[in-house]
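batch_manifest entry 22 of 60
target: Membrane protein
source organism: Paratrimastix pyriformis
requested by: lab member K.T.
priority: normal
notes from requester: please return C-alpha cells only, no post-processing; we will run our own comparison against the previous entry in this batch. if the run fails, retry once and flag.
--- input ---
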Amino acid sequence: MGSSRCSAAFKGVVYLALCSVPLVSSLFLGVSSVTLATYGIGSFLAFLLSWCDKCKARSGQWRISENTLHTVELLGGWPGALLAQQLFHHKTRKSSYRIAFWAIVLVHESFWVFLLKRV
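--- output ---
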C-alpha cells in the first residue's frame, strides 16, 4: 500500500472516529433527533459553503468569509467542513484557519465526552 493510500486511510479513520463521538454519545444520552439533524444540516451547509468558496477561489471571485465558515462549523457543521477540506483541499494550508477549525472540533468533542462522563 502506497504512502498516499496509507495517509488517506488514516485520515478516513480519524474522520470516522471524530464523527462517531457525537453520534455514539447521543445514542447513549438519548439526545433528540433534532440535535442530530442539526449536525447533519450544518455539515451539509458547511460542505456546500466550502465547495462554493473553493470554486470562487479558483476563479478569482469574492470569497466567503472565514467567520461565516467558522460560524457554520461551530453550529454543528464541522464534520461537513472536515470532509470538504479533505476532498477539495480547501483551507488545508492556512494555519490561522486550521487552528480555529480544530479548536471548534475540540469544543464539540469535549462537550460530548463531558456529557458522557456525567452518565
